[in-house]
Amino acid sequence: MRYVLFALPLILLVALVSVFAFSIDRDASLVRSVLIDKPVPQFTLQAVEGLGVPGFDTAALQGEPTLVNVFASWCIPCRDEHPLLEALKTRTGVRLYGINHSDAPENARAFLAELGNPYDAVGADRDRRVSIDWGVYGVPETFLVDADGTIVYKHVGPLTPEAIETEVLPALEKLGG
């Protein structure tokens, strides 16, 4: 019995190290959302005050494929990702909607004035309620919604040229976008 008590911490340590060893090469952007293949949550987002593009709601995400990008002016990776979103919009013409996450309207306006506004609509999610319903736990995150309003793809973190070529564009092509 005495040896078991002595060995127990060593066994737990080996188990913990094993879990970390198997997870070390895991790609953090491959987080499978529980919302994949489910309808987008019910929501309504008002426009960012003074931005000049409308807000949007659940119904707006029907009819054709739409990329929904969750961003914030205070998010450094969002700044890095932004030129890629603009290039993707220009290249594909996909509808691109933004959820402005936990941001003051003046900061969101300044961010988009500085970097350009590729969004067809931007909803203000100041209290993060809609982001929570979408399963967002950090910004940026990008979702692809099909014409029926079903979430078919989620990318966690900033989009990269590689992710656009190997994930986003093939997913868009499957949808006829």
Describe the structure.
It is a single chain. This protein has 177 residues and is α/β, with parallel strands linked by helices. It has one domain (27-174): Glutaredoxin. The chain contains five helices and eight strands, in the order H-E-E-E-E-H-E-H-E-H-E-E-H. It has helices at 2-23, 76-92, 105-115, 129-133, 161-174; strands at residues 38-39, 44-45, 56-57, 66-71, 95-101, 121-125, 141-145, 150-156. The protein has a six-stranded mixed sheet. A two-stranded antiparallel sheet has the order 2-3. Residues 25-30 have low confidence and may be disordered.
Features:
177 residues, alpha/beta, Glutaredoxin, six-stranded mixed beta sheet, two-stranded antiparallel sheet, 5 helices, 8 strands
Task: Compose a concise summary of this entry.
It is found in: Cell envelope. The protein is of the alpha/beta class. The protein has one domain: Glutaredoxin (3-Layer(aba) Sandwich).
Topology readout:
Blueprint: H1 2-23, E1 38-39, E2 44-45, E3 56-57, E4 66-71, H2 76-92, E5 95-101, H3 105-115, E6 121-125, H4 129-133, E7 141-145, E8 150-156, H5 161-174
Parallel strand pairs: 4-5, 5-6
Antiparallel strand pairs: 1-8, 2-3, 4-7, 7-8
